């Protein structure tokens, strides 16, 4: 297999692995903060127990999140030296600042976890606030590089040389705002549904004690409310991202929607397969005019189609499916979380029946799938460019051999670690059941 | 000028990571070595240090890599193609080590097996990292067109590779023992102090011997480097003197009737490693990878250079006070050092 393809497979699989842990790291730290605050505001120790158990989960996840992040950072330099050469000249700042976000997160996390009993509850809230801030900041900063890859600014190219570099202009590239907000909100959202899944799964168990039931119900409620808010927010700023694509990276939007001809009144195609022979999406549902409306705000706005671009600048057409999956999941989860909240607050039912708990169990894996498909869409939808319009993926890639062997080794390792992590979680929370927490009731988290 | 400022910053980061990493991986090894021993608390002292610190140590590794490619982006192609094999193995060991170290605290049933996995993988990491040094000195790289190949058959049969690996192992074990002896003193555990002091006494001369062996075996492979090192002899000589003073501090009397002043020894060893690594790095100049790639070729542009300086400056100003607080909480606070609380929250 050729080198570039192997490099893409190795790097892509490493990121697909890292993002699982990274997303949960970003989201859970914020949820811990919320639980710590609720505990003080409501004077209810159940929230303290929630915070404590989520913190334990974070501690386990970090065992893989941190080294897998180190892997992707180092691999970025090893596998894409051509890309790094440009990064180092134009957009090295966010990587630098990100280090300090990592420091803040790591230092405050240790303080929050291991010095808990020596801190007042205000100090505890402050430290977990900085943990959450550090985690979100590191996601935003890495996304900054990613948004710059889509809309590279802040430099000129003269005879193939990069000149006249303006580092801050690169940081404040046109795609940064909406991309960063969408990434952060979708990470919160995905975590909320993962937490909701776990709580719903616990509630399905027979023979729960009353205290356990209330505890899990509180966890479920926090997660559902948080999930409902963040999922609406994610859809709104996801829409902003699509408008951003329309303005900045039209070929990506065209591929996402399977639009071939430039046209006003462009239809929105849901599912189906883009067919370059037929010049349209076959086998899907078409909503006439909707794409024009979503991208430009009016039914007769003009949306650029793939045929405006040379064939060798088209991304692979299957990104249409990835995009549909992401948007579909977003829509579905808005429905689910609001439906479940309505059941609780409008119909005033305290207990969720099984037919509602079972779909909630599915929501966590679905939300993670949304994260994965969204990212794979963002990276593959940029093909054949690594830096849109500036550098092709083949020019960025390393020339060294041996990548095939490492792909197999790393992939095996990732699968193995996923299994081990799941087993460790299960084992730990079995060995330390909730009942013990009620019994010990230690004031310290 | 800019190139030298940049390389000194990178050397500083590397210096901190070398110390932090040696202590971190070494502590992991000792926690395995003394695992389950009823007669000593050496393992739990090592863990007491490791649990809050390993994340922070790891950030220094990322800091080093990011600073290197940020300041010297044009080195990426060459470094990338030479490093891919050894660095990928380091990464594989690193993720296994961190994961199993964290997991060993969570699954009591398998603590022993997990501690062994993380102890051994951790032990190998610094050794593997040091094996990269003889490669970038240029003795084992062949350049064909714009591709670089490592001559594995020559590398793997060369004594200098094994001398470097040996040095990595000895330095890691020595520095971590020395540091943990001081940490044990801080935790008022005399008996553990004695265990680690004894380790440090044995390992110190081994480390120095290995360093000399690594340099000597370099002669046939990279004469240019050895000549440069010879011209830095005063720095190396100074570092040997500092080492001797620090080593002797392990026997200095203290007011409390204990033999040895571990804090003094630790500080002197930090200075020693600083001097020696600086002299080594300076001998390497101006090459990043000999003989093709120099600092000047690899440096980024002026605008980026200065904005990076600002970035690191402001970041450090925020982070240094935090480090101080962290140090007070975990390396000095008696309540942390003598409390069992760690066992139930980690
Ligand atoms: C839980 C996950 C999740 C959900 C439900 C959604 N997204 Fe998303 N989306 C992401 C998770 C995500 C992501 C993983 O965070 C991406 C990948 C790269 C990025 O910038 O964010 C992304 C990228 C992304 C992009 C590409 C940005 C670019 O390449 O520059 C667009 C246009 C959208 N999203 C639009 C939407 C819309 C209209 C949604 C409607 C509900 C939606 N997303 C839901
Ligand atoms: C948008 C996707 C990403 C998100 C949300 C994300 C977020 C995170 C989070 C939350 C952590 C744990 C940090 C800690 O606790 O210290 C982490 C670790 C890390 N990530 Fe990612 N990351 C993403 C992609 C990347 C990419 C593409 C790179 C490299 C270029 C990267 C580099 C790192 C590094 C180096 C670490 C380890 C930091 C340490 O040593 O503490 N991440 N990331
Ligand atoms: C964490 C979530 C991410 C996932 C799951 C992901 C996924 C992928 C995949 C699958 C590829 C291979 C694409 C192909 O070649 O067809 C890729 C390439 C790449 N990604 Fe991402 N990516 C993520 C985040 C990022 C971020 C935050 C950055 C920016 C630093 C980034 C930079 C790159 C680069 C430089 C390449 C290689 C060049 C290229 O193929 O264009 N990725 N990624």
TrEMBL record, chain A:
It is found in: Cell membrane. Its main location: membrane. Keywords: Cell membrane, Electron transport, Heme, Iron, Membrane, Metal-binding, Transmembrane, Transmembrane helix, Transport. Pfam families: Cyt_bd_oxida_I. The keyword Metal-binding applies. InterPro entries: Cyt-d_ubiquinol_oxidase_su_1. GO terms for biological process: aerobic electron transport chain. One of its GO terms (cellular component) is cytochrome complex. The chain crosses the membrane at residues 15-38, 58-80, 86-113, 125-145, 175-198, 219-236, 317-343, 355-378, 406-429. One of its GO terms (molecular function) is electron transfer activity. Signal peptide: none annotated. It is a multi-pass membrane protein. Belongs to the cytochrome ubiquinol oxidase subunit 1 family. This is Cytochrome ubiquinol oxidase subunit I.
């Amino acid at each position: 297999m050729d080198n570039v393809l192997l490099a893409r497979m190795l790097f892509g699989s490493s990121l697909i692995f890292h993002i699982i842990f990274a997303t949960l790291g970003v989201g859970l730290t914020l949820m811990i903060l919320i639980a710590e605050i609720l505990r003080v505001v409501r004077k209810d120790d159940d929230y303290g127990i929630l915070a404590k158990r989520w913190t334990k989960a974070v501690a386990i996840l970090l065992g893989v999140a941190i080294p897998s992040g180190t892997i992707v950072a180092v691999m970025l330099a090893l596998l894409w030296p051509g890309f790094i050469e440009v990064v180092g000249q134009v957009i090295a700042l966010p990587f630098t600042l990100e280090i300090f976000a990592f420091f803040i997160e790591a230092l405050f996390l240790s303080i929050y976890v291991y010095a808990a009993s020596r801190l007042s509850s205000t100090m505890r809230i402050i430290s977990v606030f900085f943990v959450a801030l550090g985690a979100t900041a590191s996601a935003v900063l890495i996304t900054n590089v990613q948004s710059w890859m889509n809309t590279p600014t802040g430099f000129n190219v003269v005879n193939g040389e990069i000149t006249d570099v303006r580092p801050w202009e690169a940081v404040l590239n046109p795609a940064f705002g909406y991309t960063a907000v969408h990434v952060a909100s979708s990470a919160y959202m995905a975590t909320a549904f993962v937490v909701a899944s776990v709580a719903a799964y616990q509630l399905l168990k027979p023979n729960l004690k009353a205290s356990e039931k209330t505890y899990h119900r509180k966890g479920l409620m926090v997660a559902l409310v948080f999930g409902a808010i963040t999922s609406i927010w994610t859809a709104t700023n996801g829409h902003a991202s699509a408008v951003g694509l329309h303005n900045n990276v039209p070929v990506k939007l065209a591929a996402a929607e399977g639009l071939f001809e430039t046209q006003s009144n462009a239809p929105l195609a849901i599912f189906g397969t883009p067919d370059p022979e037929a010049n349209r999406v076959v086998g899907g549902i078409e909503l006439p005019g909707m794409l024009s409306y979503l991208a430009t705000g009016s039914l007769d706005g003009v949306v650029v189609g793939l045929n405006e671009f040379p064939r060798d600048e088209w991304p692979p057409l299957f990104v249409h499916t990835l995009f549909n999956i992401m948007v579909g999941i977003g829509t579905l989860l808005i429905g689910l979380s609001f439906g479940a909240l309505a059941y609780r607050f409008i119909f005033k039912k305290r207990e969720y029946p099984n037919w509602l708990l079972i779909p909630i169990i599915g929501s966590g894996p679905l939300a993670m799938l949304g994260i994965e498909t969204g990212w794979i869409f963002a990276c593959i939808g940029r093909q054949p460019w690594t830096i849109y319009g500036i550098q092709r993926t083949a020019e960025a890639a390393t020339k060294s051999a041996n990548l095939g062997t490492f792909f197999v080794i790393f992939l095996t390792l990732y699968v193995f670690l996923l299994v081990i992590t799941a087993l460790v979680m299960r084992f730990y929370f079995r060995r330390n059941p909730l009942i013990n927490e009620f019994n010990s009731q230690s004031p310290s988290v | 000028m800019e190139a030298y400022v940049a390389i000194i910053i990178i050397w500083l980061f590397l210096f901190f990571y070398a110390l932090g990493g040696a202590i971190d991986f070494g502590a992991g090894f000792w926690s395995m070595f003394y695992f389950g021993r009823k007669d000593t608390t050496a393992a739990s002292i090592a863990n007491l240090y490791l649990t809050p610190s390993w994340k922070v140590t790891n950030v220094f590794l990322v800091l080093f890599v990011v600073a290197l490619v940020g300041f010297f982006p044009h080195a990426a192609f060459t470094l990338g193609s030479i490093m891919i094999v050894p660095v990928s193995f380091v990464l594989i060991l690193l993720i296994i080590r961190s994961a199993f170290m964290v997991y060993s605290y969570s699954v009591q049933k398998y603590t022993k097996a997990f501690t062994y996995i993380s102890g051994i993988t951790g032990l190998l990491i610094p050794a593997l990292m040091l094996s990269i040094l003889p490669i970038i000195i240029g003795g084992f790289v062949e350049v064909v067109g714009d591709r670089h190949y490592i001559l594995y058959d020559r590398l793997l049969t060369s004594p200098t590779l094994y001398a470097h690996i040996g040095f990595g192992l000895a330095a890691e074990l020595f520095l971590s023992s020395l540091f943990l002896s001081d940490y044990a003193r801080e935790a008022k555990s005399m008996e553990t102090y004695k265990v680690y002091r004894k380790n440090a006494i044995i390992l110190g001369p081994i480390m120095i011997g290995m360093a000399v062996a690594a340099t000597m075996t370099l002669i046939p492979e990279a004469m240019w480097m050895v000549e440069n090192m010879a011209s830095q002899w005063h720095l190396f000589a100074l570092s040997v003197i500092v080492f001797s003073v620090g080593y002797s501090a392990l026997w200095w009397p203290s007011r409390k009737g204990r033999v040895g002043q571990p804090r003094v020894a630790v500080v002197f060893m930090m200075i020693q490693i600083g001097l020696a690594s600086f002299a080594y790095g300076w001998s390497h100049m101006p090459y990043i990878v000999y003989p093709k790639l120099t600092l000047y070729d690899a440096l980024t542009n002026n605008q980026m250079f200065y904005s990076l300086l600002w970035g690191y400056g402001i970041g450090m100003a925020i982070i240094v006070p935090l480090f101080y607080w962290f140090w007070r909480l975990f390396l000095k606070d008696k309540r942390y050092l003598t409390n069992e609380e760690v066992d139930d929250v980690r």
